Amino acid sequence: MSLPAPAPPLYLVDASLYVFRAWHSMPADGFHDADGWPTNAVHGFARFLLDLLERERPRHIAIAFDEALDSCFRNALYPAYKANRDAAPAELKRQFAYCKTLCAALGLPVLAHREYEADDLIGTALALARGDGFRGVIVSADKDLSQLLDGHDEQWDYARGQRWSAAGVKARHGVHAHQVADYLALCGDAVDNIPGVPGVGAKTAAVLLAHFGSLDALLERVDEVAFLRMRGAATVAARLREHREQALLYRRLSTIACDAPLPDVAPPFARAAADAATLSAFADAVGFGPMTRRRLETAGGTGIPGSAAAMAEG
């Protein structure tokens, strides 16, 4: 009896994470476009993206960008959401646009929306693709995305070379994949400016969810908390009663939406043919050297002529 064929992978890339990493890790000196604007993040992101394409040769892939940093639906629910983050400078915003152009020119489906974050777009794409028999490979180190894992899905911290499935989430975060949003609601998430329930830290949140299973069950049976063999149990119970509505709100903020609109792309998110002319113009505009041009040629299956200026820089 033959085993069923494994589900084909859909690679879902949290692009903004890798653009930010390149922005912070690569010096701006020496990387400029034709107008003198820095392109260090573009060069770093291109290296990451080409590494991924060369290594995995994905047939189905989507690249998600954050365009909802101050216009997300979560801001209407909770104005303080991500209010601790500084606005991206003009130099970085310009590079984000370049990175989107690069992905589109390589024939890679691009996900972006003014009201939904990259996490929501990834979750929506994965939910749609599962209906077509795909499994997800989420390329990101973001712990929030672990809540999406199910079955044969994987999350891949590309920089550290670490992969894990839904079964591996508890070892990493102390709770199961389906409990991640509840966990963040309880202990908070400083990155997103979600405070959590006062006095409930990561360990306490994990203990509570291990015992009750979910935030709903915990709040329904909150009177039991005081009798748990846990330090400060009575105080935790009182805080949970006092901050019940806030905890439910924080869970809404922490839960990835899987029904975001994807107006320009659709399953199965197949790679399309690269646009040779756009890639050539792009390489000139951002100052790619000959090695990157050759890699683009291989990744895109196109011939990209190298300009004399780029060859000299290269």
TrEMBL record:
Which of UniProt's keywords are assigned here?
DNA-binding, Hydrolase, Nuclease
**Domain of life of the source:** Bacteria
Domain called 5'-3' exonuclease: residue spans: 7-272
Coiled-coil ranges (or none): none
Q: Name one Pfam family in it.
A: 5_3_exonuc_N
* Keyword check for Disulfide bond: no
Hydrolase listed as a keyword: yes
Q: What is this protein called?
A: Exodeoxyribonuclease IX
Q: Which organism is it from?
A: Luteimonas colneyensis
Q: What is the lineage of its organism?
A: Bacteria, Pseudomonadati, Pseudomonadota, Gammaproteobacteria, Lysobacterales
